[in-house]
Specification:
The chain has about 110 residues and is mainly α. It is about 65% helix and about 0% strand.
Length: about 110
Amino acid sequence: MAGDNMKKAKTGKSAVGFVGIAIGVILLIVAVVYALSQPGVLETVASAAVVIVLAIVGILIIVGAVVALMAIPMYAYKGEQYQENVDYNLDDVKPVRESSSEDKKNE
């Protein structure tokens, strides 16, 4: 058994909540199936879903275009940063194998 300072809390309220959520989900599924079985409802829902998806895609395209257009002047204003008079050589690269962050502290 665990230590003496361990306590066990009852989970009855959350279990009742989970049962309520499960019943609600089942009732929602039954209601959706019943509604979709009615004549004309499936077509209406499908056409509404297509309109909503097309609107979301259109909004995303517009937002992407605006962000891309805003990036151009920001890039032009910021400019580039680079180093001068720096020589990089592959011989200066140290192997990573068998080294750790503790090695840096001991140097």
